[in-house]
Amino acid sequence: MLSKEIINWYKKNKRDLPWRNTNDPYFIWLSEIILQQTRVEQGLPYYHKFIAKYKTVKKLAEANNDDVMKLWQGLGYYNRASNMLKTAREIAKNRQSVFPKTYDELIKLTGIGPYTAAAISSFAYNESRAVVDGNVSRVLSRIFAIDEPINSSKGKNLFEKIANEILDKKNPGINNQAIMELGALVCKPRQPLCDDCPVRLNCEAFKKNSIYDFPQKIKKNKPRNRFINYFYIEQNNTIYIIQRTEKQIWKGLFELPNFDTESSLNEFEIINQIDFKNMFQKSETFQIKKIFSIKHQLTHQTIYADFFKLSSSKKIKLINESYMLVDIGDINKYAVSRLFDKFLNYLNLHSNKK
Ligand code: SF4
C-alpha cells in the first residue's frame, strides 16, 4: 500500500536523470559511486565525463590511475575513485569484464557495500533487495516515528529490515528509486514538504505533528584541526610537487612539498622545524615568506593551510627523490585537491595583477 503510493507519486514526479534510463549495471554502478556524499547537480557532469571517456568497465579497467584521478578532480573523497578502479580491474581480470548480477556476488567486490550492491542488483536486474541510504532511513524514521538513531548499527539493521518488509517484491527497482526520490525531493532533511507528500496520511510523524523529531542521529565527533605547511619553490618556471601515497585524504593526488605541525607557524618558527631541515641539504640558504593562508573544511578535518614561498640566488634542491620537478605550465595536467586548486587560483590572480 505504502509502496504503491510512493511508486505512483514517483512516476509523475521523478527527475529525468541519465542513469535512470539504463539497465546497464556499469553505468548504474558509476552513478552510485559518483553520487555518494555528492549532490546530483555536482555529480551529473562527472557522470557524463566518465561514461564518455570510459564507455565500458573494460575501458575503465585499462585506464591509467592518474587520468582517472584527474577526471575525478574536484569531486572529493578520492578513495572512491581508487576503489572504483580496483573494482573495474577485478571485474576485468576475474570475470572477463562482465558485471556480476546478484547482490551476493556484487557485495564481494572491493568498494561495493550493501547499499551499492542492492542498488545495482535491484535497478539493473530487479532483484528484490531494499536500498537503504540516508534518504530512505529518514523517510522511514518519519513514516513509522522510529527514534532509533539512523546511524547506529542497531538503527541500520532496523531500517534495512523495515525497507525490505515494505518493498514491492514485483517492482523492487522502481520501488527503491521511488523512496529515495521521495526523500530527496519531498521528505527533505530540513523543512519536508508534507503538503505535497503522497503518504502523509500514513505518516506517524506528520500525524503527531512531530516531523522535526525524526530522524534521530548519534552526534559525530567534532572535526579535528590540522595545520599543514606547503612550500612553493618556483625556479626557472619549474616547481616541486609530490604525489600523496599515504592511506589518507587525497591519496593519489599531487601537491606541494609539505608537512604538518601542531599549530600555525611563522617563517622563523617553520625554518626551525626538524621536518623542514630534513627537506634540504645542510648548505641551502634561502628567503622564506608566507604568501597565502586558507582554512579548508573537510568532513572530519578542518585544515589550516599556510603556503610559504622559498627563493634563493642558487638552485634549491630537495633531498627526497619522491619530489618531482615539473614545469609550472604543466601543473593542470596533474590531479590536485581542491585546496591546492585554491592556491593555484591565488597564484593566477596574483600574477594577473602584476
Ligand atoms: Fe516526510 Fe512529511 Fe511525508 Fe511524513 S508526511 S513522509 S514527514 S514529507
Descriptive labels:
single chain, 354 residues, alpha+beta, Endonuclease III, domain 1, Nucleoside Triphosphate Pyrophosphohydrolase, 15 helices, 13% strand, binds iron/sulfur cluster
Explain what this protein looks like in three dimensions.
The protein has 354 residues and is an alpha+beta fold. The chain has two domains: 2-213, Hypothetical protein, domain 2 (Endonuclease III, domain 1), CATH 1.10.340.30; 224-353, Nucleoside Triphosphate Pyrophosphohydrolase. It has 15 helices and seven strands. The protein has helices at 2-13, 25-35, 40-53, 57-61, 65-72, 79-94, 103-106, 114-125, 134-143, 153-166, 172-185, 204-207, 267-271, 274-277, 338-353, and strands at residues 224-232, 238-243, 254-255, 258-261, 287-297, 301-311, 324-327. The strands form two sheets. It has a four-stranded mixed sheet with strand order 4-1-6-5. It has a three-stranded antiparallel sheet with strand order 3-2-7, with no helix packed on it. A hairpin with a 3-residue loop joins strand 5 and strand 6. Helix 1 (2-13) packs across helix 11 (172-185), helix 8 crosses helix 11 (172-185) and helix 9 (134-143) crosses helix 10 (153-166). The termini are far apart. Bound molecules: iron/sulfur cluster (SF4).
